[in-house]
Amino acid sequence: QYAEVLLALGQLDDAARQVERLARVDPDGLRTAELRARLLAARGDAPGAEKVLRDAARAAEARESAGGADEAVQIVSALTALGRHDAAVEVAQALAARRPEYRHVLGEAQLAAGRVDDVAATLDAALRDESPGAAADARRLVSLAERSLVRAGS
User: Fold this and answer.
1) Which residue in 27, 29, 28, 46 sits closest to 37, CA to CA?
2) How far from 133 is each of 19, 101, 104, 118, 124, CA to CA, in Å?
3) What is the rounded CA–CA span in Å between residue 95 and residue 141?
4) CA gap 5, 38 in Å, rounded
5) CA–CA separation, 145 vs 130, rounded Å?
6) Which tens digit of pLDDT belongs to each residue from 13-72?
């Protein structure tokens, strides 16, 4: 948490030292990857930040049976927050391909990227799916679409 405060204050060298301390304790942790990515982005290296998060997504995929899907959701969120929308959509697409019940994450990433037609296609796929959890996912996508329409009308 101290590294986050230092990042927010723009004290990047001090933040880097804190992130490296965290990396010694938890080198493969999602929190470590997120902080490294934020530090790189703060230093103007958005491609480097994206690479760190993509690497973390691949590692999360390998651990998916032990919670990696939730990690992938966090990575999509982090990529979106960094403005790396194409990368966020790619990670979300891979997650949705493996775990269709996470299509709503793909829809959110597509919406953040301004890909409204893709959101409609994702919703259509969810509506056609008859597997367990597909109906709940379709409802989440409809809710997402409704919220975006309300925002667009405001």
Assistant:
1) 46
2) 38, 6, 11, 21, 15
3) 16
4) 12
5) 21
6) 999 999 999 999 998 888 999 999 999 999 999 999 999 999 998 888 877 665 568 888
